[in-house]
Amino acid sequence: MKKKIQILGLEIDNYSVREAILLAEGFLNGSSIKTIETVTMKMLTDAENYESVGQAIREMDLTIIGEQEILVAAGTDTPQRMRETVENEFFHEFVKRIVRNRKIVYLLGQKAEEVEVLENFLREKYPKIVIAGSAALEECQGDFENIINEVNGETADVVISTIPTPQQEEFLLEHKGKMGC
Fold it and tell me: How far is CA 53 from CA 43, 83, 119, in A?
C-alpha cells in the first residue's frame, strides 16, 4: 500500500488505522504540538480556491483520509481501507487512546450548538473522557486570543475541532504557534 498519495495536487497520508494510531500515540507522548486532520473531498477542492487550505494540509503532521471517494480516486480502495474510512475507525481509536492515556481535551467549533453536540457525543460514547473546556468561534467575534489562552490555561493535551473548512485551516495556520498543547 502506498503511504502517500497525490490527489488534486496535494500529497496526503494513506496509512492504515493501525499505522496512523501508532504515529498519533507518539504525538500524544511527545512534547511539541502536532496536527492531525481528516481530509475530505470538499477540503481538497477548497484547496484550489483557498491557499490556506492547501498550505494547512501540506503542514499537517498526519492526514487521515475521511472519505472513500479519495481512496477510489487514488486507486487505493482496498476493502480494509474502505471499511476503515467509512467507519471512521481512526477517530474512534484515537479517542480511546486519549481516554486510556488520561489526556485532557479541549473542544472547538464554529457554533455553540455544534460544540455541545460534539461534547454530548464524546461523553456518551467515551464516559471517562476528560474535557477541560470548549469554545465556539462565533462567540469570540474574531478575538481568538481568549480561546488560545483558555486552551493553554486548561493545559489541554488535545484539541478536537469541528470548525469548517477553510476557517479551521486559517485558524490553525494563524494560531498553532501560540498553543501549548
Answer: 7, 26, 26
